[in-house]
């Protein structure tokens, strides 16, 4: 890189171009100041959140000295003994050919055949020859030495497995024994697939019968199992094997440490293992264990051939049918050794009654493979108790401890005849949970009795190290993980060097951290200690360890406790799984058991509550969840045990399908933060304001642009009233089409020009005057489906001088639910008359209607379908613009029916404000798809077109139920630039058309014409919905900037509306924890616990908003959360109430700030929100102030002293499980109740309970008190698509929900 000048001197590099751009970038980066490291942006704030339990001073601590490694006795070398397995097989095959090697039993437990050593040798040779020479061509062999081969044989066919195993060893390929896959979805299938993939296995050996039984595709090929690599299958039955040619000889190695076979993911090198533990040459061994893995393989297949033993295998199927079969085999064959598990002892003892003449005196060693299990003691004792009278000697019981990594870790030798049995350890459960050994003296219940598993294996070295962190040596009275150094053991995890290092190459360190020499140890995964006389005691396994609040509990111990609670009535075959899940910064214990088919719900709940008490008193730990599932539904391991990790996965994914469940978050979640104590506001509003000003913060307020002078002299100066505007339009532009109504087919079924609308309104006015007997100012209810009749009736009322009240008509299929609301509005508004259509009039007077309301007391009903053409003598003109124009009734989300009064001046100012914001002229077309009964929806449907003269294309939302694409295809067909809809419509399109965008595109639907699509709402913008709508229909040309929202409330129907001139709505991310404390803290996108909020649209012309502290009524600073107050000429003039609650009126509509602008009158919206000044520029060139709506004050839940918005909890709940269609929350007493609609099958109902509880605890730090699972459609929703949570609460309390399941969390 250096440049040498002519005179040979070197000089630096002055020219940038000589440096590669990469290096230049690097230099520039180094010059730049460093950005904060990412970790500092998102600190895990568990410290602030979690209540940290204070350490208990009485916690027991280890006090002993540091442990010294324990040595096994030296491994003696027997002269003239075969050096390796292959050599042993060759020797016995030649010299002891007639000697029996293996006897297999049929399903009834009778001997099926016996394989001699001669046959085993000759068949293995044939297989080795076939594998190496007959599978491919000479130049292209399929297998080479060192390749891995899967062995797929059922338990019932041990001989085929033996031949295949030894055949592979002789062919120098590496056998990988695996389970027979029963179905594509088998529980362990993925793990087996991972094993085969990482070992690079492409060939599987199996028997003909087994191959026939494998699941096949319809074409007859073997199915591709989940997660498996592509496999070639080879059948190894004798008839398919070739006799080796004369000149072929297998390579018989001397002992070495090459990989001999792979089990699970362990690669095991077989060195010789001969010791006094092993059975002696020529003895008979009865093996009940699976000969493909663990002790069954090491002792029943390898050691037995090494020592020329006759093995009798008792398959699992035989044991199921006749649990005594292994005892009979011992008796018949006078076997010297038996290899069993505790369960075999247990079942044999249970089935013993029908056997009188068994004799077990021949047994020299009864090896109990899982003797390290805490409950093995009772099985061994009970078995001895029963069979001692049949010749069983106490000293022959040999419990042993093993682990997949270190093979046999320790085994108890058979004792001398009559010698005392080793002492047992009776340990305190409390001490064990703190990892220390304490002899239990007080309570018999909370003691754990453990038996020793003998001494360390010969030639091995053992230490106890701390189970987590660096492998530090434990003290003598401390429980730790057993680590072992031995020639006989696994050497590595195949293909996983990182994990191998941590497991197989451990060097223990002392307390100072200094390593203990060079010797490498292997972690066994067993937890235990070395007791007196160097006896090894095992108290549990690493994988079943549950660490709850810093204390360790063993899954097996908890299972033992649960089994002790008389499970006979409830639990099916004692099948219980225990695991822990992490919820809210700690492990939580879950117990899942299979329930007997005949157990009653009463029995089950009794059993569950007793298990809770037992575990609490014995282990001093709370259970988080106890679930019972139907018998035989838990995922099984190949030998029928419970597949724990798969069960846990099913629990967390909601695939467990329990039939009974009990959650106890209230008792076991003890680390919740302390409830917030609300401090009295000691600081006055004036001080807050001054503080904000001093801090340089502006007051949180925002305003739309000025309404300006009236530019259309002709129209509005003359016509302050909408009724006059319509008359003027009918005279000056009679044929201009104002309204087009579409049906489900997209056909215009009705249009209205200015003059047609005027004439239809006149007809209705005449009818009102003639038949209504009305006085000026009476209220008239308009009961119409969405359409032009509704608009004509509205103007007919204005012409007649009566006050229209629009009401959503009752649903003919659901009168019982919808008619009472209609009746209520009619009664509250004291309507003197009802205008409606003929079909609706029939419904009002029908028998069905009479079932839910009194139909005899309806006011006068006038049907306006076929009115005669009459002109009224004169049209009414109000004396002042402050007179009432119409009443707007709506049911709020809290279930309150409120009617507000709208004056003529408010109506015309509102229409003018919308006209300016959306630039509406008579040449424009807009499409409206929403319910036209209240709020801004009604204004857009009935009023705006008459004021501004633009054409409105009306799409009733119920038509979308018949034809979903109607709204979008209308936008495309008419090339609409501006459209208004509701959230319900947007949701219908998103859910129903999301998968059909290609079909719509093919039909020519193109949305690139749409400039603004505004959702009319009175709530926080549903950002997730608007974003998914934009993304879904982007392919149809919809601009991502088009979708926005409007915001209105009862006191002011339209506060924000995204028009054409304002900047795009901005989005901010706020911290949810701060929101609960009524504060706004802005965070980066993607920060944990953040909530995205979208601006609710640009503030309308003539509107001012200010953010106020609802308690002190003082103004707040920028980006502070408070109540939104509004001031505008189009605010409603008050509530319409029968009782005239003036105080409420004054409080909501004419309120003054306690400080600041004392003379201005404001209206309180009842919504919480904040104003934030953005970097964007408004239409006037000033910086734009954005209004963010957070939620309605009346709806918020006060829990633990914090303020929660239901929608936030519901969003979390709906994410918890794929089958939750909708959810709603409310409080009952001080419990949080979650109602979830289940869209899946009913067997998933109880899966929702733990998932809902987990997600609310994790994300909101609240404990759910009740989870109610209901059918879809139970949560009531109003016409704007808002949930009616209070109605739901009332139905819940009145027990009217008809739930699928109700779970009361304890």
Helicity, in percent? 25-40%
Low-confidence stretches: 1-17, 34-42, 270-278, 713-717
Distance between the termini: 74 Å
Arithmetic mean pLDDT: 86
Largest sheet: 9 strands, mixed
User: What proportion of the residues form beta strands (DSSP E)?
Assistant: 15-25%
Give me the count of strands.
59
Shape: elongated
Structural class: alpha/beta
Quaternary arrangement of the chains shown?
single chain
Description:
With 1306 residues, this protein is an alpha/beta fold. Helices cover 29% and strands 24% of the residues. The protein contains 39 helices and 59 strands. It has a 9-stranded mixed β-sheet with strand order 5-4-13-12-14-15-16-17-20, sandwiched between helices. Strand 33 and strand 34 (748-753) form a beta hairpin. Helix 5 packs across helix 6. The radius of gyration is 41 Å and the shape is elongated. The two termini are 74 Å apart.
In short:
With about 1300 residues, this protein is an alpha/beta fold. It is built from 39 helices and 59 strands.
